[in-house]
Amino acid sequence: MTASSTTAPDGVEVAVEHLGTDSGDPTRRLVCTTGWANERSVWSALADDLAADHAVTTWDLRGHGDSGTPPPGNYSRQHALGDLAAVLDGAGRPAVLVGHSLGGYLSLAHTLDHPDDVAGLVLVATGPGFRKAEAREEWNASVRAAAGKMDQARRLGLALRTRPRRAGNGRRPRSGPHGPPEGRCRMRHGHPGVHGGTLMGVDPLARMVDLPGGTFRMGTDDPSRYPGDGEGPVREVELTPFAISATAATTAEFAAFVDATGHVTTAEAEGWSFVFAGLLPDDFPDTRGVVGAEWWRQVHGADWRHPEGPHSDLDGRKDHPVVHVSWFDATAFAAWAGGRLPTEAEWEHAARGGLDQARLPWGEDLTPGGEHRCNVWTGTFPVEDTAEDGFAGTCPVDAFPPNGYGLHNCSGNVWEWCADWFATRHPDERPLVDPAGPPFGTDRVVKGGSFLCHDSYCHRYRPAARSATTPESTTAHQGFRLAR
Asked: The pTM is what?
């Protein structure tokens, strides 16, 4: 393995690891694919090095062009792969695929499915997540898997990584827009009759629940599901025994992790995170919002220690779930604690609490007998959260009674990271044995919904519901729990 480097016109250093050999065939075609944005500054830096041996055929996937604008909302991963296949048809095969960001993942996906189409890979991965060794290792494992399927005699196999983007570059949460564009929420840190005032311990594995595994029916075919999220079809899944925490990780536990390791979270490194506007003071300065979900505000200084920004702290919230944590932060915590993130199948099996195809962890009704069983949006959405369930914002991780397996707050409160990459299509075999999701992707699975979910807007607080979030994203309603 050899290494070299180059520098793009904007000063971004590109480290190049040569994982294979180049046969020097000058007839190869170079097909450059990007994600939703045009990244010609990166390609320009590489073109001089590659042009001698490759004829550049195109810069972008069809449907993206030079505008850098996102494709239509119904433009799926399958559509993008179809476009890539069409580009290769016109470029002549085999071709060298050069992919950045989402284009890189699509290039990998095409190579794994159609290795004879591809003479080589040049993959560029950017973003704050690539500071983490586990992210680089996972990326490179996917690269090696794809390269291994290509003919060794004509394999190029380049894997490129850039330094992280500078703090302040745009990121958007992909877990679905929740919450109101206006109105203010009351923060309460207790709940009558339950454990709202209990300070949780700092041993992250102390509350693990051992489950024997077995077979359950995952997903749903309920008419009220979100078909585009891949909730269905119902599929039989077989799991080996595992353990999962009864609660989400708390701020006290995360503080112990940071004290022991000096870990710097993604939000801290970038200097900001997304905060729900309804939790900000009335006199909070204007900030940038997410287009189409303006209630999400970019707040500089917001992180796990300061959930609403520099003016806030963890006073009264030591037993609340830690938030503003990326997938990389969650996996680092898990490794320190001696655990891991649960797979989506494990998470859903545990969240169902032994109930077969029930809508919620306790049954069918959101408020059985008028009793609130989870922390979600109450009142008129998105105008006002009345906090009828006892809370506006997050609540203690054990604030509501547990399900049949002893797990708390599997509906609402905070979204929880899973280990899996997100995909909307599922394997056909039955039963699925210990499914762990696709081998690579662009988003990670999140489950459980949050305090911002409401039936009129987002009823993803059901165990079968799921959403997708880029692994470097951080928000005020994103947490996790451990498995092992």
From this structure: 0.64
